[in-house]
Amino acid sequence: MSTAALSLGDVLRRASEHLGKTSETGRLDAELLLAHTLGRHRIELYTDFDRPLSSQELDAYRELVARRARHEPVAYILGEWGFRRLTLNVDRRALIPRPETEIVVERALLHLRGLDTPAVLDVGTGTGAIALAIADEHPGARVTAIDVSAEAVALARENAARTGLAVELLEHDVAGGLPGGPYDLVVSNPPYVEPSDLATLMPDVRDYEPHVALVGDRLPEVIARAALDVLRPGGHLVLEVGDGQALATAATLGGLGYADVKTTPDLTGRDRVVEGRRG
Ligand SMILES: C[S@@+](CC[C@H](N)C(=O)[O-])C[C@H]1O[C@@H](n2cnc3c(N)ncnc32)[C@H](O)[C@@H]1O
């Protein structure tokens, strides 16, 4: 970008083109980063296309655009990201919450309907997204959340403080079984990338998000097995799975004795949520 008297519209167009070479969402990225630089909402940019940018604003924006061009996710650059009704702190300590995980929360909330003070366990909580969204949208839920990563637990604690929501957060490895109980619901978005597939991931994910959040060794099965020890009879397990893993995970749940095993598609029609009821 040249610096001579550039308007907001010029800058946005150039940044979009530049980011479009490395990102499928170049225009959106450019807008989010510019809004962040100027301390404005993205929508406000559209009424201000002719406004000239100061050299300080340009320098600050250029720095963020360069980070994005090196594949750093927009969410990490912004330092916060929306998940359902919440805005959460996000950084490299934990996975960025994804839209498909909002459907996991949707399914979880359905199973809590009619329960005044259900006990809920979120396994592998990361930013705390699922646990906090459930606490937010089902007031009365008593939510516990665990993660093997001390850094993720620290970030989830920041998010509990930021949102003012009460969730019990524990550093805990599911390999040692699940803590507490009995629970009405166990929910998890576990790491589900096969170790051999790590190299095939987009650099935005592979080079920035924590590998402990991405790669797991049959964790959906480990969690489904362990959940049987802590779920109340009639309690539900809700799991997010990778694209193409729903059928096998549903079969695993069936084999472990879960009843009413069901899969739910994400917004693109891919089955990404598997659930069952402890009989
Ligand atoms: C895919 S991320 C999900 C984060 C968050 N729940 C979300 O949906 O955005 C998986 C999380 O599981 C945690 N994890 C990985 N292995 C674990 C284990 N053995 N026990 C507990 N948590 C684990 C990771 O640290 C990571 O935070």
Can I get a quick summary?
This protein has 279 residues and is an alpha/beta fold. The chain has helices at residues 8-20, 26-38, 55-69, 74-78, 99-112, 129-137, 150-163, 203-206, 211-214, 219-230, 246-256, and strands at residues 80-83, 86-89, 119-123, 142-147, 168-171, 183-188, 231-240, 259-265, 271-277.
Topology (elements, then pairings):
Layout: H1 8-20, H2 26-38, H3 55-69, H4 74-78, E1 80-83, E2 86-89, H5 99-112, E3 119-123, H6 129-137, E4 142-147, H7 150-163, E5 168-171, E6 183-188, H8 203-206, H9 211-214, H10 219-230, E7 231-240, H11 246-256, E8 259-265, E9 271-277
Parallel strand pairs: 3-4, 3-6, 4-5, 6-7
Antiparallel strand pairs: 1-2, 7-9, 8-9
Bound molecules: S-adenosylmethionine.
Q: For the terminal residues, how far apart are their CA atoms?
A: 62 Å
Average pLDDT number: 96
Separate helix tally: 11
Question: How would you spell out the order of helices and strands?
Answer: HHHHEEHEHEHEEHHHEHEE
**Main sheet overview:** 7 strands, mixed
Q: Give the oligomeric state.
A: single chain
Strand content: 15-25%
Structural class: alpha/beta
Backbone CA Rg: 21 Å
Strand order of the largest sheet: 5-4-3-6-7-9-8
Name the poorly predicted regions.
none
Structure summary, number of beta strands: 9
Sum up the structure in keywords.
279 residues; alpha/beta; 7-stranded mixed β-sheet; two-stranded antiparallel ribbon; 9 strands; elongated; binds S-adenosylmethionine
